[in-house]
C-alpha cells in the first residue's frame, strides 16, 4: 500500500477540522455501490477479502472520524435469476458481517429476498447494509403490511398517511448526503427517504476512493443551501 504524501495528510486534517467546526452536520450518510465494486472479478471465493470490502471498512472508520451516527450502504446486484444470484447474496452478506462485526457499531444487513442479519448490536454507530433490496421492494412491502391491517379492521383507509407509511418502512432515517462513486447512475434505494437528500457524484472508482474524497463530499454538503423541496 502506498504511503500518503505529507501534503495529503495535512490537507485531510485541515478538512476534518473545518468539517467538525461547522454548525452544519451530517447525521446520516448513504453510500451507493455496485456488486462489481466489491467483487471486481466476480469471484466469491471463501476466506477472501477484496480490496472493495477493505475500502468499505475504511469508509466506516472515516465516517466515525466525522461523528456520523448512521451509515447506510446499498449494494446493487446485477439482475438475473434469483437462484443464480443466491451465492452472491450469501457471500456478500457473510463477508460484510465479517468485515464490520468488530466495529463499534450496530450492524444490520438486509438482502432481497427479504432477510436480515444483525451483528454488533449495541454500538455507538448504526450501520445499515442493503444487498439488492431496493426502495420499490421496501415500499411495496410496507403497503402490503398496511393493506393487511386494513383487511383486519385495525385501520381505516382514510387513516393512511405519510407517517403510517414511514412507520412500516424498514429504514426509518432520512439520509442527509448520498454518495455515488464511479458513476452518476443511481438506484431506487431509499426512494421515499431520500427525496430531500443531497447527492454527491464522484468519478473516482470505489477501490481508489480515499478519505479525502469523503471529506470533500461532506464539505461540499456543508456549503450547499438545502431547500427540502421548496
Write structural notes for this entry.
The chain is α/β, with parallel strands linked by helices and about 230 residues long. The protein has one domain (about 5-225): Undecaprenyl pyrophosphate synthetase (3-Layer(aba) Sandwich), CATH 3.40.1180.10. About 40% of the residues lie in helices and about 20% in strands. The protein has seven helices and seven strands, in the order H-E-H-H-E-H-E-E-E-H-H-E-E-H. Strands 4-3-5-2-1-6-7 form a seven-stranded mixed beta sheet. Helix 1 (about 5-20) packs parallel to helix 7 and helix 3 packs across helix 4. The radius of gyration is 19 Å and the shape is globular. The termini are far apart.
CATH class: Alpha Beta
Shape: globular
When the domains are counted, the total is: 1
Q: Order of strands across the widest beta sheet? A: 4-3-5-2-1-6-7
Assigned CATH architecture: 3-Layer(aba) Sandwich
Give the structural class: alpha/beta
Name the CATH superfamily assignment.
Answer: Decaprenyl diphosphate synthase-like
The biggest beta sheet reads: 7 strands, mixed
The total of helices stands at 7
Query: Which segments are poorly predicted (pLDDT under 50) over 5 or more consecutive residues?
Result: none
Count all strands and give the number: 7
Structure characteristics:
230 residues, alpha/beta, Undecaprenyl pyrophosphate synthetase, 7-stranded mixed β-sheet, 7 helices, 39% helix
